[in-house]
From TrEMBL:
Residues 33-151, 178-296 form the Water stress and hypersensitive response domain. GO terms for biological process: response to desiccation. It comes from Natrinema salsiterrestre. This is LEA type 2 family protein. It comes from the Archaea. The lineage of its organism: Archaea, Methanobacteriati, Methanobacteriota, Stenosarchaea group, Halobacteria. Residues 307-361 are annotated as: Disordered.
Length: 361
């Protein structure tokens, strides 16, 4: 009987000691994620490195004996998980414990992100979710949940949404008048992103103007990402107004090549859309640029937050889309971009050997 009581006392004492140790550890408070800094690392044609530095606040616990941290985190763009990593038993000693990890995203995932960006009205929500668990004395103490989000917006079609009236002249004679232009995104997929452009055009002359074909070419940072026929044969009857439809398309599955140039250029890109038309006039046929639909648009993103802001909006104000070699940055300023060849005088194109001028009225 005495022996049984003795063992009971010993067990109670051991339980109190264990509870005291556990309480002492827990009393140090749960670790907290204080900061998460992300930046792009190595960029290759096939994959992109994401480097992450996580600041953990609870150095007292991390300095105890063999305490170590298990770290996992994910990076998502519009709920598409593009990168994830998990590392176990990381030593994070120091007054300010910092855990550095890196992971890789597959550039083949970029088309899916682009399609989601366009479908969400050119908006991307970037979400970084770290998870830190400190292990000590057989206990697992998870850090408080911490999530970082930021929003990235672009407005790539804004330069085409104009109600500015412009005249197209040849040899001093009025050919037709562009009353307004517009553009909308079609349904974006991982294979194709349509751009549905249109122009309301008036032919005030007594001569019909046949347009046999409209073609397009799309480039991002000089990388060809789309080309083809944008519109079939149409006729501008005399003294009439018609809407010219032109549908271009970005080959979404080609955007992994552009992505590399975007990151290497400090997340800055220029979208170039060129439309050309084959016209019949006075018995001649010739291809001419459609300046009123063609444009450059410069935009910048900040996916991982190097600008230290919650929202990045690359939209800007552009005076006119009729100026062929103009672009707009996120600060709203217009600036020249280098032409592909020696340009004609401003506002001038050659139509059947005759200068054609586009003017605003």
């Amino acid at each position: 009987m005495v022996r049984r009581r003795t063992w009971l006392v010993v067990l109670v004492a051991l339980g109190l000691v264990t509870a005291s140790v556990a309480y002492g550890v827990v009393a140090l408070d749960r670790p907290q994620v204080e900061s998460v800094d992300n930046e792009w690392g190595t960029v290759t044609s096939e994959r992109t490195e994401v480097e992450t530095r996580i600041g953990v606040d609870d150095p007292r616990l991390l300095r105890l004996g063999d305490a170590a941290a298990d770290v996992s985190y994910t990076v998502s763009l519009n709920d598409l998980e593009i990168a994830s990593e998990r590392k176990r038993r990381i030593d994070a000693a120091g007054d300010d414990a910092n855990v550095t990890v890196s992971t890789w995203l597959d550039n083949d995932d970029i088309p899916a992100w682009w399609a989601s960006h366009v479908r969400r009205n050119e908006t991307t929500t970037v979400r970084v979710e770290p998870d830190v668990v400190v292990e000590y004395a057989g206990l697992r103490l998870p850090a408080e949940e911490w999530t970082r989000t930021r929003t990235v917006r672009t407005d790539l079609l804004e330069p085409l949404r104009l109600t500015e009236r412009r005249e197209v002249r040849a040899g001093g004679q009025l050919l037709f008048v562009v009353n307004e232009t517009d553009a909308q995104w079609g349904t974006a997929t991982t294979n194709r992103t349509p751009i549905d452009a249109s122009a309301t055009v008036t032919n005030p002359t007594p001569i019909p103007i046949p347009i046999t074909e409209v073609r397009y070419a799309v480039r991002l940072n000089g990388v060809p990402v789309g080309q083809g026929v944008a519109g079939e044969q149409t006729l501008l009857p005399p003294n009439s107004t018609r809407t010219l439809a032109a549908t271009a398309a970005i080959d979404t599955d080609e955007l992994d090549e552009w992505w590399v140039t975007h990151l290497r250029n400090d997340e800055t890109s220029t979208l170039t859309v060129d439309f050309t038309a084959t016209l019949e006039y006075a018995g001649f046929e010739r291809e001419v640029p459609l300046d009123f639909l063609s444009y450059n648009r410069t935009f910048r993103t900040d996916m991982l937050g190097s600008a230290d802001a919650g929202t990045v909006d690359s939209s800007g104000n552009q005076g006119s889309a009729a100026a062929r070699n103009r672009s707009v940055g996120i600060d709203g300023t217009s600036r020249s971009s280098p032409p592909d060849s020696e340009p004609a005088p401003p506002g001038m194109v050659e139509l059947f050997g005759t200068p054609v001028r586009t003017t605003r009225v």
